[in-house]
Each structure stands twice: as C-alpha cells, then as structure tokens.
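Lest this sound abstract, we think one record worth quoting, the chain in one-letter code, the fold tokenised, each line plainly labelled:

>
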Amino acid sequence: MVLQPTNKAILGSLLDAYHEDETSAHSALPWLDGGSDIRHQLSNMLHDIETQANLDQLHFWSIHTPEKDEFVGLIGLGDELQSLHSDYNLGYWVRGGFQRQGVAKTSVDSVFSWLNQRGNPINVEIAVHPHNAAGLATAEAICSKWNGERLPDYIGIEFNGRTVPHRLHMIELGRGETA
C-alpha cells in the first residue's frame, strides 16, 4: 500500500467508499451525521485536514494500491484526545473490500516508524468501542508490536449528546527504535 497526504482530491473516492459500507464509515467517523449532507461533511473534513496539515497537530494519509492508485482507506493522527498524556489519537478506516488483509496494521507501522524517526517522545492513543471486535483485535496487535498497553478502565466519549464507553490503548513512540 502507498500512503499519500490526504487532500480534497480524494473526495469522490471517499464518497464511493462511504456508500459501499455506511456502517463501517460511521464506526470510523462517528461524528458523521447521517441526516445531513455526507458530501458536505466529508468535504469539510478534508478541508480541515488540508488547512491544518502544516501545523503539526493533524497528520492524515489516504491509503492507495500501488498498482492502480485505488483508494483503500484513511489513516490519521488527530488532536481529539481522551488522555492528558497523549499527543495524538490514531484513527484508521479501511474500505470493505480491503479489510482483513493487514492494511491497517501495515499503514500503522509506516506512520509509527515515521513518528519514531522524529526523535521526540510521542504518546499515541487508540480509542475503540468495546463491541468493535475487529477494532479491539487490531489495537491489541498494534500494542503488542509497538510495546503499548490497554488502559484498565473504560473512558466515556461524547457522541451526538450521549456518552459512549471506549477502551483506550496507549503507545509511546519517538525514541528512535522501530518495531
């Protein structure tokens, strides 16, 4: 897979992927409001990512196949943090036809290797809904490979006016070593 900095040019591919599996998209992007214009919401997200890319607060990449440059998903380091000790939160979404092929894990390895080379200690959190078995398995595999840990307590995250419990995983990076 190839990671490319996310920009507005992927909007059409992102919309196609959204319509292929809306449930998965809402799980990865829980702030999406199904009652509002999805194109507008995704366009705003891409605009925000592009305008903040040089501030070192957000880093998002679109994942593509190397052969056809086909859109596979998104991976990003965001700033909506649950822990006071975190620098970024990790999020990823792999479109349906590419799931269960190691795309998320490979993409995470690329992003974490990049963070390690930056030379500063960086704490990355991964928040996962406890009923998302695939997400929990991926987070556990990431923690195992990158010496992270799942915190023992649930944390509450606000979505659409209600608190939803999540598992929080923490990984410390930036000391120059690789997994």
Strands lie at 2-5, 59-64, 71-78, 88-94, 122-128, 149-150, 155-159, 162-173.
